[in-house]
């Protein structure tokens, strides 16, 4: 069946070929991130790994506001408008985001003591590097969004997945082994320095594609684009917060060691989402175009294939992680075997991602950003409430339970809403 589809439909062929490229690069990035975390765990222990995770949460969450959802909106802009007009929009978004990101970073560094107190850590350097990374990651992600809209999926995948860990890993090895520089903050120094190089490289890539394009003046207004992008920002922000809120609350209520164990288990469980993320990378612009052109046949076909492939691939990864979880955790060190049951719980929770299809992509690419925003907001509120109730008495198990419940909530409710609007069942039920 798949061969027949590939032979007859160029859209399906691109879905698999470009989605496959995204997957390969993402796996490469995961391995780089895995080795980076492994080296930190082996050389510095779970506590430093936890401090690095907290620093990561600062810059990942802190970059959400200055991005304004521009990175997602640029996918639609570059895929559905003339490139001459899209180029002007791109330049405006870069300027706005950069100056706001710089301001946020300045405030964070200025009040570093306040944030150290919140996260219960006594090493301000992790906070400083976290905030210093905000402008770098903001610009990198906006450039990646432009590349995605231009259908440069390999580049998009590298900048959003593999790049920062590849650069960080190389620098960590240079600092630790070659330069014999082994202070506890070296991992986060390597990461931030690598992120600077990645940002420069992302500009080079975008410029190499659009430099010969002459900007076409439009009626573009920043405030209008911000309004259009805001729901995209809120929904994507809430999804990222859903992934990092547990780490933040663990940092507040528990030890850095527990944060480190949870971070490793969560990193392994993230493997389950690889197939959906890979296909979403090329699916998003195609869905946007099919919807705009009212090509329901293509719209339905792309979603149907994505749902089936995602289910079987994700199920295979879940079984692999469940069976070999102790073996995988032992690579990081004996103390990480404490996360065996935690990883099992996170894998079970990921079943909702395996069953449900590209819920977020359908909402965001069909003009229902606000619906998706409200849906994820509900899940975020549930997550925070459960974190407040469960983390103090149950530690990282409480964090995992709140993550599982909130993820299942927005996935399954999203499937129902999409069925109601489009009469498409965005979930794979094997025995239906």
**How many structural domains in the coordinates?**
1
- Helix amount, in percent? over 70%
Return Rg in Å: 21 Å
**Can you count the helices?**
20
Q: Any low-confidence stretches, pLDDT <50, length ≥5?
A: 1-7
Question: Which sequence of SSEs, written as H and E, runs from N to C?
Answer: HHHHHHHHHHHHHHHHHHHH
Largest sheet: none
Structural class: mainly alpha
Number of strands: 0
Q: Report the mean per-residue pLDDT as an integer.
A: 82
Transmembrane segments: 21-44, 50-68, 89-111, 123-146, 158-179, 185-204, 225-244, 264-284, 305-324, 336-363, 375-394, 400-419
Membrane topology: Multi-pass membrane protein
InterPro entries: MATE_fam (IPR002528), Poly_Biosynth_Transport (IPR050833)
Organism: Lacinutrix iliipiscaria
SSE arrangement:
Elements: H1 2-8, H2 10-44, H3 46-62, H4 64-67, H5 70-80, H6 83-110, H7 112-118, H8 124-149, H9 153-178, H10 186-210, H11 222-253, H12 256-269, H13 274-292, H14 296-323, H15 325-330, H16 340-349, H17 351-355, H18 359-365, H19 369-394, H20 396-422
Helix pairs in contact: 1-2, 2-3, 2-9, 2-13, 3-8, 3-11, 3-12, 5-6, 5-8, 5-13, 6-8, 8-9, 8-10, 9-10, 11-19, 11-20, 12-16, 13-14, 13-18, 16-20, 18-20, 19-20
């Amino acid at each position: 069946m798949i061969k027949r589809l590939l032979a007859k439909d160029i859209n399906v062929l691109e879905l698999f070929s470009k989605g496959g490229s995204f997957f390969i690069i993402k796996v490469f990035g995961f391995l780089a991130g895995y080795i980076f975390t492994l080296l930190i765990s082996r050389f510095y222990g779970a506590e430093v790994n936890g401090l690095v995770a907290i620093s990561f949460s600062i810059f990942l969450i802190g970059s959400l506001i200055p991005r304004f959802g521009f990175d997602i909106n640029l996918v639609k802009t570059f895929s559905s408008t003339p490139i001459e007009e899209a180029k002007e929009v791109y330049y405006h978004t870069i300027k706005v985001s950069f100056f706001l990101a710089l301001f946020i970073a300045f405030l964070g560094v200025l009040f570093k003591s306040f944030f150290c107190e919140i996260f219960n850590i006594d090493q301000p350097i992790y906070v400083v590097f976290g905030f210093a990374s905000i402008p770098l990651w903001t610009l990198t992600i906006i450039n990646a969004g432009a590349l995605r809209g231009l259908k440069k999926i390999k580049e998009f995948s590298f900048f959003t997945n593999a790049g920062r860990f590849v650069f960080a890993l190389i620098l960590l090895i240079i600092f630790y082994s070659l330069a014999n520089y082994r202070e506890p903050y070296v991992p986060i120094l390597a990461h931030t320095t690598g992120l600077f190089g990645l940002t420069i490289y992302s500009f080079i890539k975008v410029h190499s594609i659009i430099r010969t394009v002459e900007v076409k003046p439009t009626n573009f207004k920043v405030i209008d684009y911000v309004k259009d992008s805001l729901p995209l920002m809120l929904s994507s922000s809430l999804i990222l917060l859903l992934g990092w809120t547990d780490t933040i609350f663990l940092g507040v209520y528990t030890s850095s060691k527990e944060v480190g164990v949870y971070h490793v288990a969560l990193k392994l469980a993230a493997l389950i989402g690889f197939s959906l993320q890979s296909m979403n990378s090329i699916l998003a612009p195609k869905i946007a175009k099919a919807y705009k052109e009212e090509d329901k046949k293509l719209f339905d076909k792309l979603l149907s294939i994505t749902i089936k492939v995602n289910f079987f691939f994700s199920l295979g990864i879940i079984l692999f992680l469940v069976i070999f979880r102790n073996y995988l955790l032992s690579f990081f060190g004996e103390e990480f075997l404490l996360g065996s049951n935690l990883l099992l719980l996170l894998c079970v929770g990921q079943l909702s991602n395996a069953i449900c299809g590209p819920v977020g992509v359908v909402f965001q690419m069909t003009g229902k950003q606000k619906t998706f925003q409200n849906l994820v907001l509900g899940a975020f509120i549930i997550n925070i409430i459960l974190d407040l109730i469960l983390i103090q008495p149950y530690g990282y198990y409480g964090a995992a339970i709140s993550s599982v419940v909130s993820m299942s909530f927005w996935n399954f409710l999203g499937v129902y809403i999409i069925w109601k609007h489009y009469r498409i069942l965005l979930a794979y039920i094997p025995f239906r």
